[in-house]
Design brief:
- With about 100 residues, the protein is mostly helical.
- It has a domain at about 25-85.
- It is built from two helices and two strands.
- Strands 1-2 form a two-stranded antiparallel ribbon.
- The protein is elongated.
- The two termini are about 30 Å apart.
């Protein structure tokens, strides 16, 4: 469980520590991190939904039904958030997707 998540962004140029994208742009870097987090959350939710659905087929348990319903709401929220992401061919994330945020 995580109580907080802090974004620490680089806002300075340094010849000794070059930026991976060649220039310092804190807004771009913030959006990149946000996109990575959304994609990671989406993968976690989908994987958990598959597991819970498999368990629901084996046994009848109202707690599993409640968890699945909650996961569906989480997935819908992540899908709604991801609609604000403008997918492009120029920005590559660590997950291999190309994206930048278009919601402000």
């Amino acid at each position: 469980m995580v109580d907080a998540l802090a974004h620490v962004l680089r806002v300075f140029d340094s010849d000794t520590v070059p930026h991976e994208k060649g220039s310092v742009d804190p807004l771009r870097d913030f959006e990149d991190v946000e996109i990575e987090l959304i994609l990671s959350d989406f993968a976690v939710v989908e994987k958990r939904m598959e597991r819970v659905d498999k368990d629901r087929k084996k046994i009848r348990n109202p707690e599993l039904d409640k968890e699945f319903a909650l996961l569906e709401r989480c997935k819908a929220t992540l899908e709604r958030i991801s609609r604000c992401v403008k997918w492009s061919s120029t920005t590559k994330t660590r997950s291999g997707f190309a994206a930048s945020s278009s919601c402000r």
